[in-house]
Automatic annotation (TrEMBL):
Pfam family, one: Transketolase_N
Record's protein name: Transketolase
Provenance organism: Kitasatospora arboriphila
Keywords assigned: Thiamine pyrophosphate
Cofactor entry: thiamine diphosphate
């Protein structure tokens, strides 16, 4: 398939990294509210969401219903705070609205709903997102459109049988306009994912289902843009990118801990988290920057 080029957006690694840091700051602020939030999974997927919305997806905040747009489904809907922050940074909603997260009457609920511009489907019941993205991809093909459909899943979510039914269907239908991403942070609410349902040889499993598979560092903006922007990788095969990530990435006292899954930050821990993000920003400011090309090859 041939897809239209993505819109011109910030394309340097530094700009993407700076956006990711702002996203984390928004998430920390939301998780310091009375309802708290799923910080761990939002932070492990921050660079993935940032790369998608700022360098890969063909979408326009001024026209979120454009029939030729790329679709994105956040199957791990509990990471909604991360999606809201990215959508706000991208211009789908005012950043000031993020302060309403979790409060009575808000549209920014604990799981994404279609009342939020840029949200294609309500999600959160794990295991359904890949099937939804398959439907979008098939519909795009039947309509003769060149757009792609993307879905972000958690690794704990792979314990759902519906994921594998959808994987079979996508390969059987030869949906090469479908791109799935796994946030492989190795943790779920109750502990290490491999301690609950071992996922050894995960890439080989998906290849055996007929998918084109790659693996990358899920916190490397340049690598993410390179892989996601160039899909489909093999004609007639859906694409899967396994992103190796760290739950709670960016806040040292939460990194790699199951306790980061859902937090309500106290005033003290809110300040600690903000200080850690500011320190990371200062360190990055002294480092060099590389450039990456936004979008995908013509």
């Amino acid at each position: 398939m041939t897809a239209p080029a993505a819109p011109v957006l910030p394309c340097s690694t530094k700009e993407l990294a700076d956006t990711a840091r702002r996203v984390r700051e928004h998430v920390v602020d939301m998780c310091a509210g009375p309802e708290g939030g799923h910080l761990g999974g939002a932070f492990s997927s921050t660079e993935i969401l940032t790369a998608l919305y700022f360098a890969v997806l063909n979408t326009d905040p001024a026209d979120p219903a454009d029939p030729d747009r790329d679709r994105f489904v956040l199957s791990k809907g509990h990471a909604a705070v991360g999606l809201y922050a990215v959508l706000a940074e991208r211009g789908y909603l005012p950043t000031a609205e993020l302060a309403d997260y979790g409060r009575p009457g808000t549209r920014l609920m604990g799981h994404p709903v279609r009342a939020v511009p840029g949200v294609e489907m309500p999600t959160g019941s794990l295991g359904h997102g890949l099937a939804l993205a398959c439907g979008f991809a098939l519909g795009q093909r039947l309509d003769g459109r060149s757009a792609r459909s993307f879905v972000l899943m958690g690794d704990g979510e792979l314990q759902e049988g519906s994921v594998w039914e959808s994987a079979i269907a996508a390969a059987s239908l030869r949906l090469d306009n479908l791109v799935a991403v796994i946030d492989r942070n190795g943790l779920q609410l109750t502990g290490p994912t491999d301690g609950k349902a071992p996922m050894a040889r995960l890439a080989e499993r998906w290849r055996s289902f007929g998918w084109a598979v790659r693996e990358t560092d899920g916190h490397d903006p340049a690598a993410l843009v390179e892989h996601l922007g160039s899909a489909p990788w093999e004609p007639g095969r859906p694409s899967l990118l396994i992103c190796h990530t760290v739950k709670g990435r960016g806040v040292p006292f939460l990194e790699g801990r199951p306790a980061a899954h859902y937090v309500t930050l106290s005033a003290r821990n809110h300040a600690r988290a903000r200080a850690a993000l500011r320190a990371a920003a200062r360190a990055a400011a002294t480092a060099g920057e590389d450039t990456v090309t936004a979008g995908r090859p013509a």
